[in-house]
């Protein structure tokens, strides 16, 4: 039983895991038992090792690109990859990763997508190599902190407008940014977005959540989602390899070893800044406190939306239809990529890249 719970907990890039709270509770407990200065030595990781893991992730890329920390407010900075390509005058495509992710996970997409326009990929505030500041405990304020960090990043780089693509949590934040700064978004691309539907009433669910899971979620909900990975200490890298072998398979065409698992591990055992922010945006079982479907109808009608899902994903694919219903006087395109799960861009990268390029072509 314990192993099965741990398995679900380690589905840490899937925001809808029902069981992530258990090891989070243990993380907080351990922190009360040992002094905080001891904890970093428990996890075989460091910012240097994260940097090295990312460099190994990006090694297959043959195109020229640059890497830099883009400074924003409060002495923070967002780690950014820039592919300027040969069509620098065209509207740039900006990629926002999902929960627990980082720029390295776009390795199968960056070169193909940058053939026709500049492409920017950034580590969200609190994730990856970007700064990991303190976030508010209020969901509205957390969302605003993320949105303002993206706007400050855009202004610093001098981008007048962009095609904004977000996966998972990145999709939610891309929509939130578009609502506040519509003049800066030429096209919104939502890839398996998190946080759009409201949490269903218990009576509306096909499979009611067992009482013991409800109780566990209520008791442990204050704690961070990825705590179990940090608690595993020296076993963490092996745990990722064992419990998430699918990531190795997704990138097997370019990495025959554990490069991807190592990168994911080092991404998620650093200071849990963005992780805590995400927790503050959720209610039990991974639903958003401020569901985006309540607001997406307010998005400026001139901003077209493309929604991309994996045909085999467990994420609710009905949000795209709901968006289309709300925006009948605006362009909404829904695409399901055959054979892909939640990580569409890695499951079927060629089909995903082709679709994104088609969407981008409608901008100019």
Task: For the structure shown, list the relevant keywords.
40% helix; 16 helices; Rossmann fold; single chain; 1-acylglycerol-3-phosphate O-acyltransferase activity; alpha/beta; two-stranded antiparallel sheet; 364 residues; eight-stranded mixed β-sheet
Question: What does this molecule look like?
Answer:
- It holds the Pfam family Abhydrolase_1.
- This protein is an alpha/beta fold and 364 residues long.
- It has one domain: Alpha/Beta hydrolase fold, catalytic domain (Rossmann fold).
- Helices cover 40% and strands 15% of the residues.
- It contains 16 helices and ten strands.
- The protein has helices at residues 2-9, 21-33, 39-42, 47-58, 110-113, 139-157, 169-180, 211-220, 227-231, 236-243, 245-250, 259-268, 273-280, 318-326, 344-347, 349-361; strands at 66-71, 77-83, 93-96, 119-122, 162-168, 185-193, 282-283, 287-288, 305-310, 332-337.
- An eight-stranded mixed β-sheet has the order 1-2-4-3-5-6-9-10, with helices on both faces. The chain has a two-stranded antiparallel sheet with strand order 7-8.
- Helix 10 crosses helix 12 (259-268).
- It is globular.
- Mean pLDDT is 86; it is low at 1-40 and 211-220.
Relative strand content: 5-15%
**Could you tell me the radius of gyration in angstroms?**
19 Å
Largest sheet: 8 strands, mixed
* Low-confidence spans: 1-40, 211-220
Order of helices and strands: HHHHEEEHEHEHEHHHHHHEEEHEHH
The name of the CATH topology is Rossmann fold
Strand line-up of the largest beta sheet: 1-2-4-3-5-6-9-10
Tally of extended strands?
Answer: 10
Keywords: Acyltransferase, Cytoplasm, Differentiation, Fatty acid metabolism, Lipid biosynthesis, Lipid droplet, Lipid metabolism, Phospholipid biosynthesis, Phospholipid metabolism, Transferase
GO biological process, one term: phosphatidic acid biosynthetic process
Main location: cytoplasm
InterPro entries: AB_hydrolase_1, AB_hydrolase_fold
